[in-house]
Structure formats: C-alpha cells, structure tokens
C-alpha cells in the first residue's frame, strides 16, 4: 500500500501545517509529465468534444487537472458533486476557481427526496453502522448524481493517481469505465510530491484542509487527518476494514 509523504516533513513545516512545505518536491521528470498530461487532455478533447467532462472532487489532484485545462485553454467542461455533507472549505473552492480561471463548475446534488427517505429510514449516522449502509449512503449522495453528471457524455476526466492506494495501483491513463465511456486520468503517474510541486509553481488554489494532514477529502463525517506512515486514503471511512472506495471508480 502507498504511504503518505508525511515522513518527509521537517519539524518546522509540520508545525506550520503547510502542505506545500511538507510535500512539494519538483522532480526532473515533472516537466515531461506535465507536457504528457496536457497532450492527453488535448487528445481527449479532440476525440470527445462536448461529450467530455472533468468530474472533480475538488481535491488537490483534481485542482491540478483543472489548472491544466484552464491554463491551456482547453474547451472541457468541469463539474463536481455536492453531497450535502461536504466541508465548507471544499465548497469554498468553487468561487476561487471562478475567480482564478473564469471557469464555472457545474454542481450536481443528490435528489433531496432520496436523501430525506434514506435518513428517515437509516438515520443521519447510517454510514457508521455497517459498510453496506455506508455504501448505500454513497449511492444516494454520490453515485446517483454522478450518473446525471455523466448522462450523454462519452468520456470523463479524473485526478486518480496510482500512488493513492493499492486499489488504484493499476489506474490507466485511458480506460473503459465499465459503462461504455472512456475514463481519462491524465496525471495517473504523478507522485504526491510532484502534485504539490505543481501547485507551488503555478499557484493552484487548494483546499486548506490539505494543510491539516488530509490528503484525501470526502464528506465531513467520513474524513479525518492521517498519521505519519498511514496510507493516503486511511482517513476515509477510517472505522472500516475496506478498500476505502465509495463506488465512483468501480467498474461494473
């Protein structure tokens, strides 16, 4: 399993809680990786046109992808999911994206009647009761609106990286998503250090919760900070012995 980059931190950077100071390391390979990622995005845009969308979690990797799209003026739509349980810091990135890039982000929310029915039936804390109920909550709050986001699309872009977890170690740059669409992950081969080096070099806006040792940020009740040496996604559904996935990137 992939471990966090926290062991690299200097005591001063760790005390400051500054993600760039903690993680950013520009590698000799990064210039070529940036060029390759832009080329993948450009080719996807040509191949799919208006059928292409970036599905952004608003995490640091997806913010890097958004920056690549905007910086190179690629005509690619950007969209995100608002589950109704996100941290305010996460939603706070939406106006920052508009201000920095002049790009609007389409927001897809779960159907309120489905959320109300689920909560009435299972309770607000259903996700803590069992893996099955947690996945059912993800289904209502994430998978259903994702389906609407991708309706009519032939391809979508993600910020998945192979280093994020053992379950993602085989992430391809371009693969079938199991639903007949192409799933493009242009920075699949980037390291955590390279992601933050790009953030530093190009002043990419990021979620301030990353400064609080949260490399992977989801819904507020289901996200905590990680400790030195823990897996990147250990802070997601930390009470579970599971693959730390919600189903957004599972193939049927």
Automatic annotation (TrEMBL):
> Which keywords, in A-to-Z order, does the entry hold?
Cytoplasm, Iron, Iron-sulfur, Metal-binding, Oxidoreductase
* GO BP annotations, alphabetical order: hydrogen sulfide biosynthetic process; sulfate assimilation, phosphoadenylyl sulfate reduction by phosphoadenylyl-sulfate reductase (thioredoxin)
Where does the record say this protein resides? Cytoplasm
Gene Ontology MF term list:
4 iron, 4 sulfur cluster binding; adenylyl-sulfate reductase (thioredoxin) activity; metal ion binding; phosphoadenylyl-sulfate reductase (thioredoxin) activity
* Residues in Phosphoadenosine phosphosulphate reductase domain copies: 52-225
Q: Which Pfam families match?
A: PAPS_reduct
Top EC class of this enzyme: oxidoreductase
Q: Which co-factors does it depend on?
A: [4Fe-4S] cluster
| EC number per UniProt | 1.8.4.10
Q: How is the cofactor bound?
A: Binds 1 [4Fe-4S] cluster per subunit.
* One Gene Ontology term, aspect cellular component: cytoplasm
The pathway that the record names for this protein is: Sulfur metabolism; hydrogen sulfide biosynthesis; sulfite from sulfate
According to its UniProt record, which reaction does this protein catalyse? Answer: [thioredoxin]-disulfide + sulfite + AMP + 2 H(+) = adenosine 5'-phosphosulfate + [thioredoxin]-dithiol
> Can you say what this protein is called?
Adenosine 5'-phosphosulfate reductase
Name the gene behind this protein.
cysH
């Amino acid at each position: 399993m992939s471990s966090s980059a926290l062991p690299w931190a200097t005591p001063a950077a760790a005390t400051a809680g500054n993600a760039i100071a903690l993680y950013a390391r520009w590698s000799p390979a990064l210039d070529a990786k940036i060029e390759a990622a832009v080329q993948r995005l450009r080719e996807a845009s040509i191949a799919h046109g208006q059928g292409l969308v970036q599905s952004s979690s608003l995490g640091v990797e997806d913010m890097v992808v958004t920056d690549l799209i905007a910086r190179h003026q690629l005509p690619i739509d950007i969209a995100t999911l608002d589950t109704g349980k996100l941290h305010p810091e996460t939603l706070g990135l939406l106006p920052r994206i508009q201000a920095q890039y002049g790009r609007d982000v389409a927001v897809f929310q779960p159907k309120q009647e489905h959320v109300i029915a689920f909560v009435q039936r299972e309770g607000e804390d259903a996700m803590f009761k069992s893996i099955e109920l947690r996945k059912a909550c993800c289904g209502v709050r994430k998978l259903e609106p994702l389906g609407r986001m991708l309706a009519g699309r032939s391809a979508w872009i993600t910020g998945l990286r192979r280093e994020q977890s053992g379950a993602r170690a085989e992430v391809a740059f371009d693969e079938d998503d199991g639903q007949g669409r192409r799933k493009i992950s242009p920075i699949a081969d980037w390291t955590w250090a390279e992601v933050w080096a790009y953030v530093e070099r190009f002043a990419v806006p990021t979620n301030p919760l990353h400064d609080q040792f949260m490399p992977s940020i989801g819904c507020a009740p289901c996200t905590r900070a990680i400790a030195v040496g823990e897996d990147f996604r250990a802070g997601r559904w930390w009470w579970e012995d599971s693959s730390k996935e919600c189903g957004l990137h599972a193939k049927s």
